[in-house]
Design a protein that fits this description.
Blueprint lengths: L1 E5 L2 E6 L16 E5 L3 H18 L10 H4 L4 E6 L5 E9 L8 E9 L9 H15 L4 E7 L3 H6 L3 E8 L2 E8 L2 H10 L11
Parallel strand pairs: 2-3, 6-7
Antiparallel strand pairs: 1-2, 3-4, 4-5, 5-6, 7-9, 8-9
Length: 199
């Protein structure tokens, strides 16, 4: 569990890599990250995506749904406020159709306007997605993010791979250094630092 201080008060964000809902309700001021376990949570997350990516940013016409939403391997994590309302979410899963070869992507990270900056919801969702990807045994975890979000992801340990364009807007392909893979590379090279994650 990570504690974040905002406006003179301390709040907790549960991120132990367990995306199952806690058995008890969260204490006041706590943001809870969990796997979307039912259709209502998925609908709430997709409504937030529609508002952000279709209406607010104008990245997509009509809707932002794609084949990843229909892939049964896709995992959706949601952030709930103390009242239990879904205030954000992110999805992750295999990057390619066909067999899962350990290359996953994260995407469609969204936080409701009223919850942006509150309790570090976006950072909590990214960290939870990284923890889930590592728990699933992935070997590579990447995300395509808006260019203006590159610094934010960099602060969370992600590295820039290359610039890309999505729906006519500048984005950056970023890579999360998977802990056990980075550790194996370092051990194999006798403890020398490497630039393996920046390719």
């Amino acid at each position: 569990m990570r504690r974040a201080e905002r406006g003179g008060r301390v709040s907790a964000v549960h991120l132990e890599g367990n995306t199952r809902a806690p058995a008890r309700r969260a204490a006041p001021g706590v943001l809870r990250i969990e796997q979307a376990a039912d259709a209502a949570a998925l609908r709430a997350y997709r409504r937030l995506r529609h508002e952000a990516f279709v209406r607010e940013q104008g990245l997509f016409d009509g809707h932002d749904l794609d084949d990843r939403d229909d892939d049964p391997r896709t995992v959706t994590l949601v952030a709930r406020d103390p009242a239990g309302t879904v205030v954000g979410g992110v999805r992750l899963g295999p990057a390619c159709n066909g067999p899962d070869i350990g290359w996953w992507t994260g995407g469609r990270l969204v936080v409701a306007p009223a919850a942006r900056g509150v309790h570090g919801a976006a950072a909590a969702l990214v960290r939870a997605a990284c923890a889930r990807a590592e728990a699933e045994g992935v070997l590579r975890f990447e995300a395509t993010v808006r260019a203006r979000a590159e610094t934010f992801f960099g602060r969370l340990g992600w590295t820039r791979v290359r610039p890309v364009t999505v729906a006519g807007a500048p984005h950056v392909l970023m890579r999360h250094p998977v802990g056990r893979v980075a550790g194996q590379v370092t051990r194999a090279l006798g403890g020398q630092a490497t630039g393996w994650g920046a390719a």
